[in-house]
Every structure is written in structure tokens, then in C-alpha cells.
């Protein structure tokens, strides 16, 4: 009984190893085929930003959509990063080869990434990266920041060092102070 179990386990393990080796070879072969196809193109591969990312200043709780447009021949894969971590990824159309012809997808890709609620966790650097099947990689960066203008407080009350001055008639309880300091990012509050 135990010999049969051992043989069955060994059989499945060998199939897994063979399957893994074949899949790895297939991936390496397809990458080599794509690079060979790229080398044989009549026109040189192109990858450029038509519209790069732009910095955004938003209020707490706002929804922000970042946009970048990329022209690629062949079309590129798109990856969005926030503070260096992948937040979205879209693969490129594959290169199709027939007996005597090769078709590649080319054109303008307009990609958007939406931040549903701007807050301390969602602010920071965002990157739109385009990767061509021919090996070229380009990227564009933007900073999403909280605006200095707090809701309900005139801009003239805000100092250059993110401070806020209140007269004595503006009193808050502890929970409201914590909200002002943590959410709006004020580093110094002075009561006059």
C-alpha cells in the first residue's frame, strides 16, 4: 500500500517538474519570438508619452483621476505604481504571427487611475510606466498632495508653515483638535 502511494506521489512530482520546465521554455521562446519580431519590423519600434502625468493638489476626501497617454508601436503594457508598489497592471496585446505575415497592435493608449478618496494613505508619488514588447520602458511621475486650503477656512488664515491661528472664540474639543492635526496635516496650531 505505501509503495503505491510513493510511486503515485513521485509520478505527480515528475509531471509537475516536466510541466514547469515546458512552461518556462515556452515563456522564454515567446519572449525570444517577440524580440525577433521587433528586430524585423520595417519601422523602428516607438514608445513615447503623448500626455505625461501632472501633479495634483486635492482636498481631503476628494476623488482624483490620474491620466497618461502613451503612443506605442507595438503597443505597451501599462503598470501603475503608488510609492513604488504596483497598484494596477494592464498587459500589452500579443504579437500575432501567421505563415507569411506578422500583425502587431500599435496606437495611442489612454490610461487612467482613480483615487476614490484622497487621504494620508493615498497621497504621494504615482508612476505610470509603459513597457514595450521590444524591451523599451518609459515612465512618468506625479505627486498627489493634500491642498493647503482646508474646507471652511479661508486661505488667508493658513501660514506658509502649515500653521493655523485661532482667536479664543474658536474653541474645539479634543476630538476636533485631533481631526485638524491628523487629517489636514497642520503641524502647528496657535490659539490667540
TrEMBL record:
Pfam families (UniProt xref): I-set
Ig-like domain sequence ranges: 45-145
Top-level taxon: Eukaryota
Protein name as catalogued: Ig-like domain-containing protein
Organism: Ancylostoma ceylanicum
